[in-house]
C-alpha cells in the first residue's frame, strides 16, 4: 500500500545530493519515512526517487486524494485546541521548517502569553475572583517563578491505532500517565491513565513503528516541558487533564475551563510579584526587553543554523558515506577472493584477514548509517523544540513593549481624561507585573536552556565517543589478523 | 608563478562532486597539486575551479607552451632508458591511470621478460659466454629463484633541483645510496653515493616539496623492488649502477652493458633450472599458465576497483566531509557566543563547553582532511605499484605461450626440415626453462604480494585505529566539560 503526500512548497534539488525537485501541489509517493533528520524519500509520477524535506510534503490518504475534505478533520482538532495546548495538528508537525511553515500548532510550539494587545489587562476593572496567585520572587538571577514543590510530570506510552469518520481518518492514541501523587494541587488522586490521541496521518508499512515512536518522544518532551512550567502547569485545564477520572469529570471541567477568563493577556492578572520587588524603572525595563529580543533572535538564527547543518550531515551519514565504506569493504573482500584463487600455498592467513577487514568496513558502513538516529536525532529534536519555543518570544515581547508604551502615554491619557489618575497608577503597577513576568519567563527559559543543552550535548558526545571507540575496536580486531612474520 | 597543464583526455565532471569538466588539448592552470588520491585541482580559462584526475593532464612549462619542443627532452631520456630500467619519464608517471594511460615507462612498471617472440632464445645456437647462471630450485611452493645471500638494497634521499637545456628543463636529482657492502657480487666496494635524476615536470610553489617527497617514495619503492628481484638485481647494468665509482667507470660499464646479449627473451639463457627439476609436462604447463593468466587478470580488476574506491573516498575525505565537520564546529561555537550574550548568570560553564566542543569538531575536520595522506596514500601507492606489475604479466605469459606452441609444432618442424631433431630437443628443454622461470616468477610475485599486502593493510589499519581513537579521545575531553548538576 502506498503512502501518498501532497507537496506544499516547491523544492529545488541540489545536484548530486540525492534530492528530488518537486512542485507545489504535486502528489508524490513516500518511499521511505525513516530517513530522519527532516528528510523523507519520495518518488514522483515519473518514477524519480530522491529526498525531500519532510515538512514540504503533507501525507494524504488515498481516499483524501479521491476527494474527501481534509478541513473537516482540522476543524475537529481546532476544537481540541481550545481545551488546552496538548493537541497536535497534521502529520508533519514538529518537522524542520525549512522555509515557510504550515502547521497550526505543532508539538514544538510553546503557548505564548497572548496575541491581543495588553490593554485588556492593563485597564481591567478588577482581578479574577478566587484564583490562587502565582508569585514571582527575587531569586539569585533576578525575578523568578515560584516552582511548586512537587512538580507535575507524566509518562507518555503505549501507542494504539484508532480511526474515525468511518475509517477515513486514522489516528494514534497515546497513554498519558500523570504523576498526580506528587502534584501539589491534585495530590488527592492516585495515578490515573489518560489516552491522548493524535492524528496518525496515513501511516503504513514498515516505517510506522519508528515514526510513532518518534512522535511519542516529541509528545513526551512537550508534556514534560509543559509540566515543568509553573504558569502552564497551574492552569485549570492542564490540571483538569491530569486529574480527571472519567468522561463526566472531563466534560464538566472542560466547560468550566472554557469560561476561564484568565486566558490570553489576562493570565497576568493571576501573577503577583512579591512585595520585596520594587516597581521597575521604565528605561531599565526597555533595555532588558531589548536584550531579550536580541538574544532570542540570535538564538533562533543559531538554532536554525545548527538544524541546517545537522540536516545536511544526516543526509550524508545515511547516504553517500556508508555506501563508500561498503564499497571499501567490498573491494577488500573482492581482493581477498582473488588472492584465494592464486593456487599459492600459505595464502589463507592473508585472505582471511582481508575478508575480516572487508567485513569490518561493511560493519562500519552500517554503524555510520545508523548513528544519526542515536545522537544527531536528539540534538536536532532539542533544537527543533527550541526553535518552536523561540518562535513564541517575539509576540510575548511585543505585548510587553506595547504595555510600556501605554504607560509612557499615561500622563497624556489622564490629561485627555481617557483614564483617571488612580487608573494610571494601577496601569503602571500592572505593566511592572508584566515586566517581572517576562523576566521570570526569560530566567525560566535560560535555566531550562542551560540544563537542556548541557544534557543534549552530553548525550550527543557520549554516543559519538561510543561510535568512534567501537570503530577503533573493530579495526583493532581486523588489524590483529594481518601478519608480516 | 602559474603551473600550466595540457589536458590529455576529455573528462566529464560528475555533478555536485567538486569536479571540473575539461576537453582534450585545453590548457588549465594547476591550482593545487597536493590534493592527492590521483586528483589535482585545476582552473580553466573561464576561471572555473575543480578536481581533475592527475593523469588526464600533463604539466607544461610556460616556455613549452610558447613553442619549445618537448620531444627533445623525451629523446634524451629515451637514451637513458636503454642503460637500465631506473629512469622515469614524464611528470605524471605512476599516477592513477583512469582510462587510457600515456606514460612510456612509469615507476610502477616492472620490466617484462620480452616484447619479441620466444624464437630467438628457443633456437639460438649457443648460450652466453662467461655468464654466471641464475638457478631455479625446487622450493616448498614449487620452482623458486635462488635468492642471493646478501640482498642488494639502496636508500633514495636528498632531492636536489637542477636544470638543463639552458634552464628550459628542470629536473630533480635524488641521491641513491646502495648497500653494496652486503652485495654478494660487488662486496669489494664500500657504500658509494649515486645521484639519479628525474625530470621534474614544472614544479613550482608550495606544493613542490610534497610532490617531490611522493616521487622520492615511489622511486624508493621501485628501487627496493628491483633490488629484491634476483634476475634484475644480477643484471650487469643494475650491478654497474650500484658499484660504479666515477664517470669513467659508468661510461665503460654502460658501453659494456649495451653490448650485453642476454637482454629481452635471451634473459632465459642465463637461467638454469636445477637438475632435480624434471622436464615439464606440456598439458600441466598450459594449465598453470592459464591459472596465472586468470589470476593476474582478476587481481588487476580487483586492484583497479580498490584504486577507484580509494580515489572517490580520498576526494570525499579531503572535500565535503571536513567542510561538514567544520560547519558543525562553527554551529556549536556560534551557539556558544549567542548564549554568552544572554546576560544570565552561570552561563560560563556551558558556553566554555560548547566552544570546546565546536573547536573539537574543527579539529576533527582537519584530521579527516589530513588522514588520507597518512593511510589511504600507502594503500593506493601499493595498489598502484601492483597495477604496474600486473600490467607486465600478459606479455610475459604471452611469450611463454608462444614457446609452448612452438614446442607442440616440434615434430612438424623437424618433418619439414625447418629444424633438426637435436634442435627440437634443445627447444623443448629451453621451453621448460621458460616455464620454470615463469613459475619461479609467479612464486616470487605471490610471496612478495603476501608480504606487501599484509604490510600495507597493517599500516592502513594502524593509522585508521589511531585516527578513530584520537577522535574519541578528543570528544571525551569535550564531553567532560558539560555538566547537568
Automatic annotation (TrEMBL), chains A, B:
<dbReference type="GO" id="GO:0031410">
    <property type="term" value="C:cytoplasmic vesicle"/>
</dbReference>
<dbReference type="GO" id="GO:0036089">
    <property type="term" value="P:cleavage furrow formation"/>
</dbReference>
<dbReference type="Pfam" id="PF00787">
    <property type="entry name" value="PX"/>
</dbReference>
<dbReference type="Pfam" id="PF14604">
    <property type="entry name" value="SH3_9"/>
</dbReference>
<dbReference type="InterPro" id="IPR001452">
    <property type="entry name" value="SH3_domain"/>
</dbReference>
<dbReference type="GO" id="GO:0016197">
    <property type="term" value="P:endosomal transport"/>
</dbReference>
<dbReference type="GO" id="GO:0097320">
    <property type="term" value="P:plasma membrane tubulation"/>
</dbReference>
<dbReference type="GO" id="GO:0005886">
    <property type="term" value="C:plasma membrane"/>
</dbReference>
<dbReference type="GO" id="GO:0035091">
    <property type="term" value="F:phosphatidylinositol binding"/>
</dbReference>
<keyword id="KW-0813">Transport</keyword>
<dbReference type="InterPro" id="IPR036871">
    <property type="entry name" value="PX_dom_sf"/>
</dbReference>
<feature type="region of interest" description="Disordered">
    <location>
        <begin position="70"/>
        <end position="97"/>
    </location>
</feature>
<dbReference type="GO" id="GO:0015031">
    <property type="term" value="P:protein transport"/>
</dbReference>
<dbReference type="InterPro" id="IPR019497">
    <property type="entry name" value="Sorting_nexin_WASP-bd-dom"/>
</dbReference>
<keyword id="KW-0653">Protein transport</keyword>
<dbReference type="InterPro" id="IPR036028">
    <property type="entry name" value="SH3-like_dom_sf"/>
</dbReference>
<feature type="domain" description="SH3">
    <location>
        <begin position="1"/>
        <end position="62"/>
    </location>
</feature>
<dbReference type="InterPro" id="IPR001683">
    <property type="entry name" value="PX_dom"/>
</dbReference>
<keyword id="KW-0728">SH3 domain</keyword>
<comment type="similarity">
    <text>Belongs to the sorting nexin family.</text>
</comment>
<dbReference type="InterPro" id="IPR027267">
    <property type="entry name" value="AH/BAR_dom_sf"/>
</dbReference>
<dbReference type="Pfam" id="PF10456">
    <property type="entry name" value="BAR_3_WASP_bdg"/>
</dbReference>
<dbReference type="GO" id="GO:0006897">
    <property type="term" value="P:endocytosis"/>
</dbReference>
<protein>
    <recommendedName>
        <fullName>SH3 domain-containing protein</fullName>
    </recommendedName>
</protein>
